[in-house]
Amino acid sequence: MIFTKEPVYKILLFFEKDRLRIESNTPDLGKGEEEIAIEIEGNTDINIGINGVFLLDCIKTIDSKYFTVGISGTSSPVTIIPEDDKNHISVVMPIHIKN
Questions:
Q1: 95 and 13 in contact (C-beta within 8 Å)?
Q2: Structural Rg of the chain based on CA atoms
Q3: How confident is the chain (99 residues) per 10-residue block, as mean pLDDT?
Q4: Is 87 left (phi over 0), alpha (psi -120 to 50) or beta?
Q5: What does the alpha-carbon distance between residue 48 and residue 57 come to, in Å, rounded to a whole number?
Q6: CA end-to-end span of the chain
Q7: What is the predicted pLDDT for the residue at 99?
Q8: Per-residue pLDDT at 46
Q9: Strands (DSSP E) along the chain, which ranges?
């Protein structure tokens, strides 16, 4: 989030075979990149843009150590469901990104 800017706070999520790469790049602030090991089912190599503040707000409401992120496409809503509470569903709309 350090390398994002108001009002969009855009971060890029790159879902790959066994990892999630998170990037943020704002020319006047700098660039940041992190990788997280994940388990993925279905289509891999999905790239989406998302508002980092909205994503963090959803994750902060989860008490579970693990959660499922549901993505059906680059312009479809992203769902976040805690492992231990299937009734708690957060939804975040993606941001259109240029390839």
A1: no
A2: 13
A3: 85 91 90 93 84 93 91 90 92 85
A4: alpha
A5: 18
A6: 21
A7: 60
A8: 87
A9: 10-15, 19-26, 30-37, 46-51, 67-70, 78-82, 90-92, 94-95
The predicted structure's pLDDT at residue 19: 92
Strand partners, 22: 13, 34
Q: Could you give the CA distance from residue 20 to residue 11 in angstroms, rounded to a whole number?
A: 12
- Sketch out the chain's domains with CATH numbers: 10-95 (3.10.150.10)
pTM for the model stands at 0.84
Q: Which two tokens stand for residue 26?
A: 């704002």
| Cα separation, 88 vs 79, whole angstroms | 10
